[in-house]
Amino acid sequence: MRRRRPPPRGAVVDLDSPLGSVRGVGPARARALAQAGYETVEDLLFHLPSRYEDRRAVATVAEALALPPGPRTLRGRLSGLRLFRLRRRMSLVRGLLTDATGSLPVVWFNRPYLAAQTVAGEDYLLHGAVREAKAGRELLNPSCERAAAALHGGRVAPVYPAIRGLGAPLLRRLFNAILDEMDPPLPDAVAEPLPPDLLARHGLPPLGEALRAVHRPGEGDDVDLLNRRRSPAHLRLLYGELLELQLRLAVLREREVRVPRSHRYRLDERLRQTLKDLLPFRLTAAQKRVLREIAADLESPWPMLRLLQGDVGSGKTIVAALALVIALENGLQGVFMAPTALLAEQHYASLRRLLGERYRIALLTGSAPDLAGARRAVARGDVQLAIGTHALLQEGVIFRRLGLAVVDEQQRFGVVERQILKAKGDRPDMLVMTATPIPRSLALCAYGDLEISVLDELPPGRSPVATEVVPASRRREVYARLRAALAAGARAYVVFPLIEGEGEEEAAAESIAGMGERVRTYLADWPSAVLDGRLPAAERERVMRAFQAGEVRLLVATTVIEVGVDVPEATWMVIESAERFGLAQLHQLRGRVGRGAGESRCVAIVSRSRRRQSSPESERRLAVFASTNDGFRIAQADLEIRGPGDLLGTRQAGLPAWRVADLAADLPWVERARDDAHALLPRLAEPALAGLRRRVESPAGRRHEPFGGG
Fold it and tell me: From 4, 28, 354, 565, which residue has the greatest number of CB atoms within 10 Å?
């Protein structure tokens, strides 16, 4: 960042001026702002108000006494101010506000200076909450300023998030000083990076005007639009944030697919018949549509980059298997990567059942037998399809002619792992899958460099899983019902968040070692087994085979069963300590039942204690979970509850920290930004868009750049 000597105090400032040169910013405040990442005027301009208060209507004292209690702006003279010292360094100032219609008591906490700084006979503008008190109504802790130089009252007042202890009133004064002292004025000081025709199409103001409007709203501005961040100024900043990301993703995708791949695919009648012969059942209409999209990608000369998402049980694996068959039948190798050994083992078993002896398939996990021999076979080309975990990413795994890479449960891998896998071949095609539905707005931002296919249809015969959320006080009733279901022939899961307790009585009751063993004892009439991530691979496989065969009727497990476990005969699930699980995780767990034609049930038990009460967020999660089986509705609710960063996790780094955009509500603007980014991409070479091009192609620039949101 460019440094220069601070100008004299009170001089004009520009975008590059250090904040220490702004009126009201001394060395201590400048240090506090710098520690928070704000060093220049430009930096601070992108610290946006969190909300706005409408202080334009100035009420009389008589109106404040007659209207319902609430926030009011009043004008009058102050008298009788007295300072009271309270305990623990607390203070109280009491006084009287008087106008032509009457008087109203005023109370301030911890603002002792007001008792000495107010001037008799001077008009003041106060804004605060009028409330009922023992002696009648009073004005509580209002802002207080001379009416002749009012900054906080008589206007639409922006309320800023505090910065290192610097609160909203001080920040309002700083922004007021900046807007008054900037030369050139703010609307002219900020270069507009976007083409004028683009702004005109969406009815958006230039960036400089937008920044001025968010910090200094006009007299006639709609406060509701400002607070909903739907004013023209906010929409300009929102659009800029989204367009910047979509342009970067478009540039990234262009780099990935601009060079044709060396391998080619032929989809002739012989191959189509092979695919039909392999199918154990008829595809749904959604599966057929997605398979056509994949086939079109493979027949093109450019590498495929596609995300396949669908709800639990929608049949993604069979679509991926058929895509892999296309690669194998064209003399290429395929790879199928899963995040856990158990899931990789499940895919290995199911693909061997589906493909039989037609292709040579190998399992590559850290615990697989003869891993070194499998690597050598892959390198020679003797293995046509490699299925595995992160072990596939090791340097010793070399493919002879990799054509198609499938990544299952993409959200569990980072972009780096995807790139390592792609580097195993010469521009291989990439199909990434997720069984956790992603709201479209988030998918376009997190995976915008990929084409997106959606399986939005379940195979016929699937019934919704009856779902209940019950308190721990009903645990005995739940297990009595499970006992009856097992007696009638059911197979069941009981899921715990912990293998062993955390040392507390409450935590021990939510672990396999504690409550899990009591459950197994209570249901000892039926064979049970434990499945968790600490079991050796061979033991996990033995337990799963026994459960699939019905030799084990009750599986007590951790979230190791969250994905990939497919036992159609399992019709009951109990989730212990359900408040500890995320919404998407609960939905994934529930997806282990309801995979056959029989009626299925999932009961989530909520554990509460005096030391660990459930949060409003967890209660909302559980309410959504109980209300719907629709994974896409659950994903949208999860986005609204947790936000995009927490929803994707830290491994999906790359999403910016949005200042204005809200991916739970801004899908139309995301789609506009994506369409505009694709249209703008060929124009980035124009001299007039040089600044925009540098910004998009150099994402590691300054934290706050005048693009549209920082």
Answer: 565
Q: What is the signed CA dihedral for 122, 128, 133, 135, rounded to 10 degrees?
A: 10
pLDDT-wise least confident of 346-355, 390-399, 404-413, 593-602: 404-413
pLDDT of residue 500: 79
Q: Which residues pair with 387 in a beta bridge?
A: 336, 363
Identify the pLDDT of residue 616: 81
- The mean predicted confidence, pLDDT, of the chain is 87
Q: Residue 503 pLDDT > 60, yes or no?
A: no
Please indicate, yes or no, whether residues 133 and 180 belong to a single structural domain of this protein.
no
- Segments in 381-461 forming alpha helices (H): 415-422, 440-446
The secondary structure of residue 652, as a DSSP letter, is G
Closest CA to 203 of 230, 177, 181, 223: 230
Peptide bond into 184 cis (omega under 30): yes
- Looking up residue 489, the CATH number of its domain turns out to be 3.40.50.300
Distance of alpha carbon 311 from alpha carbon 698, whole angstroms: 36
Give the residue from 600, 633, 563, 635 showing the smallest Cα distance to 312. 563
Q: Which tokens hold the place of 363?
A: 């399992």
Q: Which helix (H) or strand (E) holds 322?
A: helix 316-329
Same domain, 532 and 597: yes
The pTM score is 0.79
Six-digit token string for 654? 């790359």
Q: Residue 509's pLDDT is what?
A: 45
pLDDT digits (tens, 9 = 90+) for 422-431: 889 888 999 9
Gap between the Cα atoms of 695 and 507, Å rounded: 50
Residue 136 and residue 33 share a domain: no
